[in-house]
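pasting for the record
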Amino acid sequence: MHMVSRYLLLFAAPFLMTSALRAQAAATSSDHREVDLAVTYTVQHSNLVSTPTFWQQGGSVELSAQIYRGWGATANITGTHVGSAANRGVGLSMVTTTFGPRYTWYKPNAIAGKRSLAIFGQTLIGVSNGFNSYFPSTTGAMTDSNSFALQIGGGVDLGLSRRIAVRAIQADWLRTQFPNSTTNVQNSFRLATGIVLRFPQNPR
């Protein structure tokens, strides 16, 4: 029960954070509808087993849409790579595809010269494919493996104009379940920054 409660809390955390923002400023974002395409540079602090950990580098493409009162949906594809995972001389490449709900608090550019601000939280699920690596299992070692993926996090976008924004920061926790002959569980932490192309659906 303790483990179930912990995962329920992790699942709800992004929405608890953004619900507080929503209560304070619903009027600024309740009627805002927008489709965003974000391209980011991504670093990922990963593990294959409990220790040692290592860093991967890569990038992501993320498509999101604000649909109703700040609520919307997001699809994310992230690819990362490291030449030597856990200092074992074996590389690891990962491509993770996830999809799920997002809540965005949006403050428009109400004053000339002032940037718009968007703060979002999301919970995404999908699959992760690991390849060009080493995955021990009960049936033998594999170089490729697929895993369920759970991604929870959020970020901040600073608008440069109606059509372009900077993703100042995005931080996500990623859980995967690749075989590793012990727990078969990995917990990774991601940081990303990049450019967002905005397509307002109700521009003013």
